[in-house]
Amino acid sequence: MPNRVPFPRARHLLAGTLTILSALTVVTAPAQAAPSPPGPPPTPPGFVPRTDPLPAELLPMMASPAKPGGNAEGVVIGGDQGGHRVVVMNARPRTWSAETAKWTWTPTAGNGFGDVAHAWSLPSDVRVRTAKGKVYVLSADSKGFLGAVQYPSGKRLWATDAGAPNNPHATELLPDGNVAAAASTGGWIRVYTASQGKSSSSYTEFKLKGGHGVLWDPAGKVLWAIGDDHLVSLKVGGTASKPTLTEASRVALPTQGGHDLAPVYGNRGRLWITTNYGVYQYAKSKKSFTTSYRHSGDVDLPIVKAVGNNPATGQVVLTRPRTGCATTWCTDTAEFFGTGAMDATRTLPGAQFYKIRWFVPAYQ
């Protein structure tokens, strides 16, 4: 009900007659702005997120990779939590160092990320995409950062702070310019309205326990997402400014603890899937998981955090926690598996990688 404020009564004497005039002015409450999505949860003082600690029973499975050597071809990209940066490396040289990196990047106030630089420290996922003829690097940081930058200029496309308590794990660029994201502790999959501005923080959300990965499927026109226990496909509806997410399919993972979700280059009908206990390929048409794939004898390993095959060579790169690394989810070593002499390892001293991927922009 609108508030009614009485206008003061005025008394006027006219021709000996007292006339009391009174009036009532109606004041209308201002229109309410459309509600905004809730902001990120407050970060407790001194809180440092733990990207993906291993359960105690899995600690004996931590890797002891071979010394650097072997043949590897191509370019890879990873998030180095030790150096708080994104790193692009050529896989061919057997010796990696900070000086041999092709590209490194960190969001700072100096390069246009002053509003979100506080949310960067522990990059958990990076990937490459193209849009309108330009190459972009997308990244998610366990401390809250979600963003996309042009490669190699580092120019900002979009970024936001999703909140450290949510523990963001992955990002994906959608065809309309929006950005999908997954958060493990937050237990959600979101589509942010990145197309609406470089700092747009509006989003739509789908709940998924232990959200770890997202991948756009241009053939099926769905967003795949992986969590602790399930692989789901989501229809992205609505508009670019007001997107929606609707579940299209759901299948239980073959083992618990979903981690990575990636395209199988050369076979659009399959997806790479990793859990705490193995590396699988998911056949979309059959809605089933399999370990019958090339190099499975080497690649089907426990606690693999990221996996993918090179579309040109077929060689597989993966990362898994290494004994002696600073945390129970990191490694300084990328492992490459192919045939015979193609098997290789590459180590960046002091690095703390959670995921390393091929520098390939294709969705599939």
Q: pLDDT under 50 segments (min length 5)?
A: 1-35
Beta content comes to 35-45%
Query: What composes the largest sheet?
Result: 4 strands, antiparallel
The rounded Rg comes to 26 Å
Category by helix and strand content: mainly beta
Average pLDDT, rounded to a whole number, is 90
**Gap between N and C termini:** 57 Å
Overall morphology: globular
Instruction: Tell me which oligomeric state these chains represent.
Output: single chain
User: Spatial order of the strands in the main sheet?
Assistant: 7-6-5-28
Please tally the helical runs, counting DSSP H or I stretches of 4 or more residues. Answer: 1
Proportion of helical residues: under 10%
- Please count the beta strands (DSSP E, at least 2 residues each): 28
